[in-house]
Amino acid sequence: MGSKQMKGFLTLVLSLAIALSMAACSENSNGNGSTEGDSSTPAPSAPADATTETEGITFPLPEAVTFTIAGVNGTDGQNPEETGFFKKLSEKTNVNINYISLGADAAGAIEKLNVLLGTEDAPDAIMGASAMNETFLALYAKEGYLVAMNQYLNDPKIMPVFNSRVIGENPDILKGITSPDGNIYSLPYINQIPGNYLESPIWINKVWLDNLELSVPTTLEELENVMAAFATEDANGNGDPADEIPLLARTGAGFEHLEAWLSLWGIPTKDSTFENFVFVKDGNVIFAPTTEEYKAYIKTMQKWYENKWLWNEYFTGSPQTFSAIQNDAGAAKYGIITAKNAAGNFADQYIAILPPVVEGYQPKFYLNPAYLTGSKGQFELTSNSKNPEILMAFIDQFYLMENLLEAYNGVANEDPRLTLDNGVYKVNTIPATELANIPSPFRNYFSNNLPGAVLESDYMSGKIEMSATDQLKGQTYALYDEAGVINSEVWPRPYLDPEDATKLNEMRTDIFNTVSKFRASWVTGQSDIDQEWDGYLSSLQSMRVDELTAIMQKTYDNYMSN
Description:
Elements: H1 3-24, E1 65-71, H2 84-93, E2 95-101, H3 106-116, E3 125-127, H4 134-142, H5 150-153, H6 160-167, H7 173-177, E4 187-191, E5 202-205, H8 206-211, H9 220-232, E6 245-247, E7 278-281, E8 284-287, H10 292-306, H11 319-326, E9 334-338, E10 350-353, H12 370-373, E11 375-381, H13 388-396, H14 401-409, E12 418-421, E13 424-427, H15 432-435, E14 452-454, H16 456-460, H17 468-482, H18 498-523, H19 529-542, H20 545-561
Parallel strand pairs: 1-2, 1-3, 4-14, 6-9
Antiparallel strand pairs: 3-11, 4-11, 5-9, 5-10, 7-8, 12-13
Helix pairs in contact: 1-17, 4-18, 18-19
Region (Disordered): 27-53
Organism: Paenibacillus sabuli
Protein name: Aldouronate transport system substrate-binding protein
């Protein structure tokens, strides 16, 4: 989303928010709109019947066609083809699917794909990002197991919706999904709400502050004074001064992680689970855990842990325990969290605050690169597909706003999660106790996301009623954006050259395990970072961390030059 579009959208967000309150009381553009892979060579092992010219595909097809589609399935019970959305789409297109579950986790999915791809049992396509990370995408494409989709994406007779809504309205997204060889092997999910991509702003319990007659902290010292008060006084007012957790965070999470606090030292990144610990500064790709800023941050986290300001089950607590704290029925149990928005039974007690200033540093908060590229890796076409034009035309249907909304939430006015009134869609929040009695939507059978798009224009034209939660995300984004604390040099997660992907795959495990081991030891006070820092850096050097960073730099430079 360009900067001009972003500002226009934020105006919409804020005006909607004001209307709601009254009732209640993308950068890095190549600029030419072209597809980056137009002049590239075709991918190896493309099916023989794949053509670049067609008379067009009209749905419903005169004869039914069935495709085999594989996905990571975290949902038990019915198959995705039995959902109301797919029955409706199948009637519209005369396309059926034979679903292959790759299991409930990404590691198991890769193992199954390794067995299936290149055989007669290979699926026609793979759907859902959990089934295909960037490393394996590069390797599978190199081996010819995946087919370049450029010719279909650029053909408005095969993919008219993609041409209109993605290439027409958001041509820069093509840059983000193009591999180094100029081909596109995977399709994105696009959701253009800016607040979605500011993943870990800081939320603080305003009721607790008021109860203790404290002000919103604006510096690190003030923040620590607030946490000290939260830890020792009855901030939640339930009579127990010992049941408050000043800072709630958890390891391995997408948003509520400690790395969000690295932003106070000007380092916008996430851990190895999500972002390889890299960030970009002045065009240079930097591995965060080797910097002096990281060392200062770790010392601060150790102080917070020692004083029990940080939840002391950060490294060991289960997601269930974390959720139980958020949803305590009696009183709010945590004072501060980093997340897209506050959650739980007392979410309305929290307000977003600007990052407290650490002396000598400019805060820079992480922005998920999906705002530039879409959420990548949601659909891949395999070399086993017998009718790729029809399959791609079928997938094109998911880029219609109404189809994607129903894929995620069920058929409008049939499923309580989605209503349609006078041409306006509304996604409804259903209590968890009621969700258990509602059949899973199509999206739940393909972990992470689906290919498709909900665009800025869909909101600005009034086709979708923006939820109060999304309006709040937009307000928080505007707060951070106007203060200049959002990172402008985003690491775009560019696709890797196959040889580089292989090298990174070899290096990352040892490097990231070392970073994680020392981080846990230092934060919990089991060892001293000052005594171990030089040896730690030497260990990473021996594991070729400089080579890892050089590969990331080369990949980033290639991306920026397109």
